[in-house]
Specification:
alpha+beta; 17 helices; single chain; eleven-stranded mixed sheet; 423 residues
Length: 423
């Protein structure tokens, strides 16, 4: 097989190298919110979709709102309103990523790069060279179901941005064989979709399945397209069949405009939903523990977990060693009208290759709040630290139901009569 260094030399002075350097110079940096968990059900045997998480800022906002409501003021006489102003911390792009590497790539491109970074660089340059083909293949996702969208997203986007194209999709989806042809219907696409077990976690605690596992490190969930708002016209089937690129909801606004108005619109219309956040935080934490357990060299890294629709990405990061939880402050739109956003492509590429581009043990250098997950799960923490992946979860009823029935049987057998109070 040809040496990576020799393959990279073909890109010296190329259009793709120039495009990468320009994109890095013009990058719209993504910041991440540092979240603390107030309460959760991580110590119960439930799936990710049944995860219940209350973030501390959400709790504080709710309590503050209740106190400000005059109807309930008398119930909070001992609470000072000023004490309940939520504390928000964010980790900036420049803090999270190794800016020396970003600067070197944006200045020198292929030349003089350290050996360990070359495989990741080769993936993005190869993708940019074949960008038109992949974009055309992705443009047909409008009328497809989640399984088909998952296949196209991994074949023509996500797997292309990691060395070795190492991935597996969930083989439990209906009609999915171990290998199937990519459903993009592009005449030049000969790719097959690799599927297998994507189980994460342990049945006594949070557990479930990712839609995609990348590089045996990163979990991805593909979500249904969010419904259009009342202000948007719902396109007919004929409309969606004849439209290329993103959905109608994403063509309403142009994500390349750098304004707060656009960012607020994106937050309202895309995948930053409370129920999505709960499910994805549970998956991000569990997946990070599973990956660290399988590969101790990942200790200290913020391990990414992604949620996506065919229009957007939402990124969660968790460091099991330092108990740090981050979520991107805004979703990443992957389309600029009918064209893939280069800003999204580059930032997702950097996130997927996090061990090359991110800073390790971020909590050692910055005052970042712990997520409180370690304390909340208490004696269940060893279960997370030993959790694994690639184990199917079986049973006729959910683990929480089994535990509940076992608890009732034990109570009936061993419960003692309540003793009389002593005066």
């Amino acid at each position: 097989m040809e040496d990576v260094s020799n393959m990279l030399k073909r890109f010296e002075g190329s259009e793709e190298e120039a495009m990468l350097k320009k994109c890095l110079h013009l990058l719209d940096p993504l910041n991440f919110l540092n979240f603390v968990i107030k309460s959760c059900n991580a110590f119960t045997p439930v799936s990710f979709s049944s995860a219940d998480i209350v973030l501390k800022p959400l709790y504080d906002e709710h309590l503050r709102g209740s106190i400000q409501n005059r109807t309930f003021c008398h119930q909070f006489e001992e609470v000072e309103l000023e004490e309940l102003v939520p504390r928000y911390t964010k980790v900036t792009f420049h803090q999270l990523f190794n800016m020396d590497i970003v600067k070197e790539l944006s200045t020198n491109g292929v030349r003089g790069l350290k050996e360990e970074y070359k495989p990741a660089l080769l993936t993005i340059l190869t993708y940019l060279r074949n960008l038109e083909f992949h974009m055309e293949a992705m443009s047909c996702m409008g009328g497809l179901d989640e399984t088909e969208v998952t296949a196209i997203m991994v074949v023509h986007f996500l797997s292309q941005l990691i060395p070795g194209k190492d991935y597996v999709t969930d083989n439990r989806s209906s009609g999915v064989s171990q290998t199937q042809k990519c459903p993009c219907q592009h005449k030049n696409c000969k790719e097959t979709v690799k599927s297998g077990c994507t189980a994460i976690g342990s049945s006594p605690v949070w557990h479930g399945y990712a839609d995609i596992l990348l590089s045996q490190k990163i979990a991805v969930s593909v979500l249904p397209k969010p419904p259009t708002s009342d202000k948007e016209k719902t396109p007919s089937k004929e409309d969606t069949d004849n439209v290329e690129g993103p959905s109608a909801s994403k063509r309403v606004c142009k994500p390349d405009q750098d304004s707060e108005e656009v960012k607020d619109t994106l937050v309202e219309t895309a995948i930053m939903d409370c129920s999505v956040s709960k499910q994805m935080i549970a998956q991000a934490i569990t997946n990070a523990f599973a990956r660290l357990n399988a590969n101790p060299e990942l200790s200290g890294w913020l391990i990414p977990t992604l949620a996506c629709t065919r229009d957007d990405f939402l990124v969660f990061l968790y460091d099991p060693k330092n108990d740090v939880l981050l979520q991107c402050e805004i979703e990443i739109p992957i389309w600029v009208e009918n064209t893939l956003s280069m800003n999204a492509v580059i930032q997702i590429w950097m996130l997927l290759n996090f061990t090359f581009f991110m800073n390790k043990n971020l909590a050692d250098d910055y005052e970042i709040e712990k997520s409180n997950f370690h304390d909340l799960v208490d004696k269940m923490l060893p279960l997370y630290r030993s959790t694994s992946c690639h184990k199917f979860f079986t049973g006729d009823c959910s683990p929480i139901e089994e535990t509940y029935k076992r608890m009732l049987r034990t109570c009936r057998l061993w419960a003692k009569e309540a003793p009389q109070k002593k005066n």
